[in-house]
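Request: Mind sharing a record?
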Amino acid sequence: MKSVTDTDDTDDIDDIDDMFLDELSEIWDDIRENYDSSNNSAYDRTVLDCAADLASDPGGESAYVWAIGLAVMAPYLTWLPGAGVADQAAVALETADRALRDRECPHDSHPYRSHGDEDDAYLAELLPALADESADWDEDRPRSEWRCPRNAAGFTRIALDIIRPGSVTDVPPRLPLEAKDSISTLSALLHGYPKPWTDINDEISGHGAELSQADPADRAGRLQVVRAVTWYAVSGMVRKKSVLDGLAEAVEKVLPHFAGSDCAHDGHPALPDSGPNAAELGIRLSSAGGRAIYERGRIASGGDAPLDEVVCPVLMAEIADQTLAQLRERRDELFGERDTSHADAEYLRADGRLDIEKLVERTDFKSWNEKHADDLGLWAARRHERSDDRDRAVLLLVAHQAMNISYPSPPLSVVRGVLATMRAVAAAPLPAACPHEDAHPELKRGGFRAGMAHFWAPEEFPPGEEPRSVESWTCPRFAAEVAGKCIGDLEGLYEEDELADAG
């Protein structure tokens, strides 16, 4: 690409060819829109050409063009540009800022002072009309302010703030691009629709690492992000114990920084109680730019709590304690030894026999049975070995059905126990043929549960639509078929070394 430094006179803005600037501004804007490109040699060359034009005459009349150009392309320099590209651009910007920022001018203010990141989309298309005095000009601020050296200096600092967040002052605050991307990714994940490229375990773990490494000023925000992702992690959507371990360790590490604090606040605000909203607030509070944006918005709206209350160490100590307790409790439930002794009172009659009505009710595929499924399935699998043939047939089916009802999926503590039983059943010797002439019960048919109740207590319950013989319900080949199906559903949910206790 031709650099304007190749022309005869770069001191006069009129020497920039209008068509050349039209084309160049479109190229710059394309880089802004598609900044998430790694080591793009064409992008690198364009940035370096623009930086060279600025560096060749940092105090010249055309400096505003190249300063705005680099501000437009700055997002690319936060991604993965070629080696040294971002540094060369930053040197040109710093040099121009020093040359321009103290120039005398007649203006009370300049456009850069009110330029937020939402305005970036219009910068490139503004440039051709800005450089051409004969073009229509519909902007609120006059060309003279836009082309003023002090405004050019302001845009060099905006570009630097994008490239190196928090490195400059005297420009409107903005969220780092990394923070914007994180909000977008986490919002999708916590709404239950993660972006296709999101590794859920890595995404959740990463926020624990961010908390562990956070600077003191960012620590409260990072803790609030961990609070938000913890709700998702303990819901059963995360299947790796190490993820919960990492979150707990991060909270344990920062808790002493908040513990024992005091404050003069009369009370503390209620933080968002939805995962996406809580995560977004936390990410905003995790950078100087985000905190400044929060305060600006609070002052403008008059509705939000002051920043010092939202990040108060006393409040953060409470949040840390609550989050840690939740992580520890659910980690034990999801991955530790699960106690199902309480289920005897729920699923056995007073005489010690199975409460078949309750079991039939709880194996119905209804959403309200999801909360019972994990304990029920594990209880049935554990009781299976020490039961008679009739009870074993029912308990095997109950465990299988409960695993299908479990949502979002059964935790490791349950899968281990159920798999141990299912693998033992599947490995048992089988007769060459079924000891009955009728077909096996069909688990997906509507009459299955009624049929199971009749099989277990024919004197109490009428037969289902298509009654099966006792031999079909207790058939070893049917049991192996059910066990094999359950094993296929459960294997793969967790790493095999985690399932080692399942045999």
